[in-house]
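Q: Convert this sequence to structure tokens.
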Amino acid sequence: MTGNASAPTVLPPREITLHLLGLVLFLGLLGLWYWLSTGARAVPTWIEMLQDDDPSTRIVAAEQLGQVGPAAKAALPQLLAQATGDGSQHANTTAATALKSIDLTAARQVMTHFIPRLQDQDAQQRRTACAVLGSLGPVAKPAVPALLAAGHDPDELVRRNALMALASIGIPSPPIVAALLEGLRDSSSLVRQTAVTQFAFTVPLTQPVIAALTPLLSDSDRSMATLARSALDTAK
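A:
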């Protein structure tokens, strides 16, 4: 050892105090920012973001407002406009989902708006209508008869979205399960996979469903076979 080794640097008490005060100030500002940007206090900011040109920004804003819940009622006009008139289907569905958490009356307005669009001549309008109605969950129970009819739409994406919506709504169970069982025999592999997915992850299995899924274990479509196995495993 030599005498040239440098001694550890020790800050004087005044500098230590200043560093601690700076840290406390920083944490205080961080806490204030968090307080202002969460919960009902952030509603005006999220409402403003609903007007953004970027669909992803509108989607995030709707999601955050939905998490706030009933305290976000000031956003109802903007969310209704986004749910029913936005050009992005994802923006439509996230706004509808938010309304379901904030105000059920407003959510039912969205349902009333979209049920007639299940018969629109434009297939994209019918697809969006199915998706939005599904995002409302059980609130959209009155739409079930129209969605059951949409399960026979000539457009496979409409049929796919209709089955997903019915599974999301869930009630009344017998006609919904019957529609999903019929979907297992659809001419479109996309629709068939959608139907079996609902049994694998959403819809509880009954004995008739188990009987319909069992033959699919040897289906030539490996995706169908795998999903059928996943569904049947939940019944064990």
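The chain has a mean pLDDT of 89.
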